[in-house]
Each structure stands twice: as structure tokens, then as C-alpha cells.
Amino acid sequence: MTEVANNSSSLRERHGKTYQDLYSRCFLVTSAPAKFCWAGEYSHHIGAPIIVQNLPLRVYVGLEQTRPPGKIEVSDVMYVPSQDRFISQMNPVHRKKLAQFVAELSVQHNGTSAFPGLRIHSLSEVSPANGLAPVNIS
Predict the structure, then answer these.
(1) Are 53 and 36 in contact (CB under 8 A)?
(2) Suppose 89 and one of 56, 77, 78, 105 were both cysteines; which one would form an S-S bond, judging by CB atoms 3.0 to 4.6 Å apart?
(3) Residues forming a β-bridge with 123
(4) How far apart (Å, rounded) are the C-alpha atoms in residues 77 and 88?
(5) Cα–Cα distance between 69 and 138 in angstroms, integer?
(6) DSSP at 84
(7) Is 63 helix (H, G, I), strand (E, B) or coil?
(8) Can you tell me the distance from the alpha carbon of 57 to that of 128, in angstroms, rounded to the nearest whole number?
(9) pTM of this prediction?
């Protein structure tokens, strides 16, 4: 069986249309590296040292302006190595709750629900159920 490289570069090369769709739809796209915590994943909360390594994978988030105003939508895709493709993995209930949470924050921040409608796109190169939990450090 041939081994397939799964890092940001190889995924962009093999699945260019997925990335092109994200960048062509969104007026703003940002990304961050996936991280692996070797030690201290809980101790850093109290200021203790942590040993972390960046992985050659990224998580992207993009914002697309939509209509109607004041509505927030969430779209997600995650890479699944066993299928060598990106598919939606978010539970519809969680997607709806996240959209409501962001809409409520926007109302609190802006003082009105008359902000532009947004679709939040997430693209994760980190596959589900692989044992890599998010590490909330810079």
C-alpha cells in the first residue's frame, strides 16, 4: 500500500478546489497551526511550563458576508484521511448553537442586530478522533 503524505502542502496540492472555494467565498481568512502537547497540557493553566510542538497541519477560519443582515451561519469541513477527502463533521445541533452564540456576541458588541449577515467557514486539516486535542496557547 502506498503511503500518502498528509501535511498542509500535500493536502493543498491534492485538494486545491476545497481551499480555492474557501478563499474565493471569504473576505477574510486566517489560519493557525495544529499543535501537539508533549507535556503540561493542564499545568499551563496555573503558569507551569508546557512542551508543545507545531504540526505540519493547519486550521482555517474564513468569514463570508451573507444576507439577511443579523444572521450567522456556520459551515465546517474536516479532513478524513481514510477517505482522503474533506467532509462536514459538526453535529447540526452544535452548529446551530455556535451560530446563535456568535450572533448573541455580535449583538452585545454592536448594540444592535443590524450587523451584516455572516457565514463562518472552518476548514480543519486535523482529522477527527486522532487523539490530538486543541491546545489553547500561543
Answers:
(1) yes
(2) 78
(3) 60, 77
(4) 4
(5) 33
(6) T
(7) strand
(8) 13
(9) 0.83
